[in-house]
Amino acid sequence: MAEKTGKLKARRDKRFLLLLTLLVALLIGFTLAYLIFHRRDKTRELVLYGNVDVRQVDISFRVSGQVEELFFEEGDYVAKGQLMARLDPAPYDSQVLEASSNLEAMRVKLENAEILLERRLELLPIGGVSQEDVDNAQTSRDQLLANLRETESALVINFDNLRYTEAICPNDGVILTRVREVGTVVAPGQPVYTLSLTSPVWVRAYINEPNLGRIHFGMEALVYTDTPKGKIYHGKVGFISPVAEFTPKTVQTTQLRTDLVYRLRIYVDNPDQLLKQGMPVTVKFLN
After folding, report:
1. What is the pTM of this model?
2. What CATH number matches the domain at 44-54+200-286, 1.10.10.10, 2.40.30.170, 3.30.450.280, 3.30.70.270?
3. What pLDDT was estimated at residue 250?
4. Phi, psi (rounded to 5 degrees) for 64
5. Tell me, which fold does domain 89-164 have in CATH?
6. ∠ at Cα 233 (228, 234), nearest 5°?
């Protein structure tokens, strides 16, 4: 009886060992399968490192003059069409008044020349004047007509110059630098503000030649900042450089800096305006 009980116990132990071995084998198999498929998914993910780029605009006047008013400080948000700065308009007001007076005087002269020409034409058939007198009167009228057009053009130019004493914001943006102060005399084209536009915003990144075939225009990407649990931004590839170049020193990459790379531009939606000029970011693509 004891012998029979021992045999049953040995069989149970054998079955338990076999079942345990099977469970361990299944667990190892599932673990290996997970690691293999997880690694494959990881290899499909393309990760690049780059920096945020934002266009900048130097705000200046098209005419010279003394700065009379500056309406914004550094860091201020400015909407498209807002008045940013103004020059002293007095010299240009005077030029407009002078041009207006010259135009009015020219119109009076032209009117008198028209009357004189009509009189000469009336007297010509009866021999009251010679053909030469008529020709001279017509030439004088034509010359005054040309002078009138020139004076009208001068008035338009002076009106434009008066309008150019105001600097208008060309697009929504944030003031980076206030270059000049009130009272400064500036020449045409000298900046008074540097404006960072809020749109478009893109990421400048670089990709090496082996991975270039994995990128195409319009390809969607996810952009991550260094902020822990920060917002994920969505973007699309908008530019792929047709020319290879050496990796710039500022690029953060695990590849050798002597590798040839291609520059990418990934346009990013920036609704909260938190992506700033030069900010380092991580770009992830899923093929």
Report:
1. 0.69
2. 2.40.30.170
3. 55
4. -85, 165
5. Helix Hairpins (1.10.287)
6. 150
